[in-house]
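Predict fold of Leucine-rich repeat domain-containing protein; 507 aa.
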Amino acid sequence: MLAERLGTAEKTGKLDLRGLVLGQVPPVIRALRNLVELDLGSNALTEVPAWLGELTSLEVLRLERNALEDLPRKLGRLDKLRVLELSHNKLQAVPSFVADLPALVSLDLGQNRVESVPRWLADRSALRALVLGKNPLDAFPEPVLALSGLTELGLAGLGFEALPGDLGALVALQKLDLGENRLSGLPASIGKLGALRALVLRGNRLTELPSMLPGLRLRALDVAGNRIGALPLAGHAWDEMEVLELGDNPLVVLPEEVAAFAALRRLDLRSTWLESLPDVLARLTGLRTLLLAGSPVGLRDGKPPDVLFTLEGLEELDLSLTGITALPEALGRLSRLKFLWLQGIPLASVPAVLRSMKHLEELDLTDTPFGRSDEVEALTAALPTTRVVCVDWAATYRAMLGDVYILRDDTGLDDVEIAKWVLARERGGRLPAAGRLRPVDEEVLERLHTLVFMQAPRRRVTTRSAVGVMVDLVARDQLGWHEVLEQLLEGAHASGMKSRRIGDTSR
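Predicted 3D structure, encoded as tokens:
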């Protein structure tokens, strides 16, 4: 495989060695002096050789998802390098050689162990994209504010409770990621970002939509995972909005102004308090993805809202855990539907309409009463090109518990240390035990965090705050992981179709 890829690289100037579990950079690469792009991402590298700096034709170097703690200063010789991808490593500082890269326009240092940003970064005026998210920074990286040419800035998962007032001076920004912080508001200067088209505020502490946002000509907005109960959209400038992520908020009403978003293609309303949808959604003829999982839109009569069946351009529809108990024949009108998720819906039998939906690419029947019945086998035969999914959700929890046991044996971590890592990940703090973990160990911890803090609440098994209490008890050695996962499993069995307005008052 390596020889074949090297042969291709000699012709194209591009070498892809991603995901080969390489423990070292193959020395044969040193001879490829005309190499323009080198991808060594997702391997097991703990170091890279200084001779990489001899490949002076390189314009793109990808080293993400390895175990690198430092990089040789000689990489500063790569004076044509435009893109440097270093995310998901163990770097404790911004590599000093970055100061010597005159052509660098894109730098990704996300999810490392960087504690501070050097002052000289302010002089890298050619930078257009910079990602610093999910590092244990001790303060807001002030040098970033001098990079007036930035068009993309990633500051997710840094634990910020507030932002500097002059952030709005970065007027060239087109994409800004502030997700997974602790923000309860935004500085007014954000309203000056006239070029901004994509804004991520997922997983913060917003209780209302920041007042300046409707005035920005956004095309993508992600405010999922906050505490927003209403969306005042009067006078909005969102005619070009294509992606709107509103999930995991206590929204009771979806404002009718949403129907004016003629360009909208994706609408995420998962895990809200919505019990109905406005009929004016029928105007969204360009909508391709509608996600309603965990929102009680089927509680009133056990059926999906009628307006769904007017959205004939839909390609993805998630109705999991929505209180629906029956699927009408009108579902068949959605002839362009490719993905249909029906997880946890207590249907008495396989609806006849599903057997005729041969255009489906995937049908998810996980945790439905007939998930392993002969009816599903008949349905699978009727839809020969459709991937029919029937996963045992309980097995997911049990498999995770098994992975926790293996993690403890392999690393020496106990339940307390594992809990502290998961809590730090959830709260955006410094990740403990970092020096003792391999990438595969960190992957297990990431899956554990996702399962307990994201998947379980999304399925309305519990709430994020309730999970936080349980994991905190593990961190205090008052509870074990087996008890946490067993409680979540019991919750999965017991979770009915109650409205989140009743079942989750913690927000």
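Confidence is low (pLDDT under 50) at residues 493-507.
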